[in-house]
Amino acid sequence: MEVILNRETFLKSLQFLDLVVSSRTSLPIASDVLISTKDKDKCILVGTDIETALSVEIGCKVVENGEICIPAEKLYNAVKELSGEEVILKTQDEKSPIAQMFCGKVKNTFIGQPAKNHPGMPQIDQKQAKSSQIQINSDIVLDAFEKTIFATSKEETRYYLNGVYVNIQKDVIKFVSTDGRRLSYITRTLEGSKVVASGIIPTKSVDRSIDILKKSDSENCKITLLQDYFILEIDNLCFVSRLVQGEFPAYEQVIPKITNTLKIKAGKLLKSIKQSSWVTTEKGFGIRFLFTKNLLKLSLAIESVGISEVEVDVEYDGKDVEVKFEPSYILDMISVLDEETDLIIGINEPHSPWTFQPADDKDYLYILMPMKL
Fold it and tell me: Which of 3.40.50.11540, 3.30.70.2740, 3.10.150.10, 3.40.50.11780 would CATH assign to domain 126-252?
């Protein structure tokens, strides 16, 4: 194999692959990047940690076809220190796992592995994948993932909650996550879609999708949900992840009917919670919220530490209600909103779920179960 690559393009591709390639794996080959040629002017780079895989297709000049596996971290560290515009990568012969890289006066030799040892990308039924694919604005997906990932469960026993549930129903796509104490729920519209599909995307894969979407400049992306796999495609990138196998709870049944609400700036609520939280940051010590006419009082007391009391002026004309919340659960939600966002709090009984919703986004709902008073 011999290929001539643009150094910046090559480096950027390796940066994407770094999101997936695992250095901590029982399968050593999974820490390598598979490099293979395609046609006369394309090169494909593949990285995997077995549960997920990412392929990047880049333009290049193919002098001689071939393929090889090279340790991803070593290759990335070497390429980022080069200063020339072009990189030449070549192997001695098909049977030898040795690759040489030339750039200007720099020559690097890598001891790799045969390409046949690499797992590569999962085998996907392309016809089925095409029929289950939707095109959607990248910012919509990024926003939805960021507003749901924090509410996924980390308990191994309830593995079916360890991810974001994505449900595509033709012209509507829903993103849902819950850990049993809270639920984050987003609905967005699709144009011209006839796809009906659903699946639970593992939290780790959602996190990697967020990183990929942030690094990409593409306006749109493609999403595919199959029986076993989630696929995210952006330009020359294809990210594939196994789905969590299990049945997601009937989330719409837990959405409470709210008759009384209160409006407050997200930043104002954020500040008041932080002013109350100095007493302790440990979970289990919830902040008491007392809602009275035009006033919200927050308090937190620990006998061996002290007491915090904060008053916030609000527009509220309902009955007095006292409730206790785990502060981090509210801060998680506020952190993905603009501080100037008007937040509508759906007030319920102290033992029933409450709702939090941006005034300018009726299709995003956060539901939180109070703690015992």
Answer: 3.10.150.10
